[in-house]
Design goal:
Helix content is 44%, strand content 12%. The strands form three sheets. A four-stranded parallel beta sheet has the order 2-1-3-5, with helices on one face. Helix 2 packs across helix 3 and helix 11 packs parallel to helix 12. The radius of gyration is 22 Å and the shape is globular.
Amino acid sequence: MNESNIPPRKIKVGIPRALYFYRYGPLWVYLLRQFQCDVVISAPTSAKIVEDGAKQAISELCVPMKLYFGHVQALLDEYPDLDYVFIPRYVSIHKNQYYCPKFLTLPETIKYGMKLSVPILTLEVNAKKHYGIEGAIEMGKTLGFSLEDSGKAWMVALKKYNQLKSKMNSSNYIDILASLDKNPNHVIKKRKFREVIPKKIRGKFPLSILILGHPYNVYESYINMHLIERLKTLDCHILTIEDTHSDQFKKPVKINKIYEQYWQSEDEILKTARYYLNEGKKEIDGVIFLISFACGPDSLIEELVMRDMKTRKIPFLTLILDEHSGESGMVTRIESLVDMIRRKKYDSISSS
């Protein structure tokens, strides 16, 4: 065969299935494909990934960061021919707010923490500059694309992402993210749970539960013990930030008369909580807040949200996640919360 007829090998870029892959993963995949890259994604979280991440990361880091280390290692193990590991730098998407420092320094944390032999490909998103297009241009330059072509690639990817985002909600979120990975060995197997609700009364006493938390806690089924699936077996309808209308995120949250919320990710949680404390109060029966052990911003706003929910008499449960979380203890707490809410709701209906 003539060598000139052999198509050039595409640049292979690996994306760790962790942290803000659970929010911006589709955007990254669309952008890298616009740059003609062969995109691969690390396997769904497993016990080995958790173990590898905990070994490589320092103990003071939160579990989502430890998982990130594990997913980078999983990419290196499965794809030894990687040209780049894609590690974005998210600074801000609003000029008056910042992401957690772990997002600001993520490329350096992984580069020096793991002593990577594979180069890192970075996309910087910083509203204090020009959102993401400047970062896309810099990334395109690394991949050999012109300024104009890189700008166009960003705009196409962003448009496709926004179209997809408008269709995503808590019921299809995990499946849509999983569809980005074309590796047949990475198919997420649905876990079966015992039916807690007897068949004869299933559907007669439903509840609506709001799950608050970062997407990498809410949709990371391995680390949250398959919370969404468990609640569904308990006849619960699930609501998350992704089910909240975008209009609810336009008005800033004021902590008091002087201070507004400083952290970008926590701001989304507070705005969602504000909606369900007011206009959306009748849409939910209870709230579960997922926070990562050792996450400072989360622990602060959890206290604020808990106090507000208590004032409005909305049942509230905090679940703290780390790599040592026990399944039986968490399941007991979830089932106890649901049972308490159901008894209170339907006993009051029958007695009225």
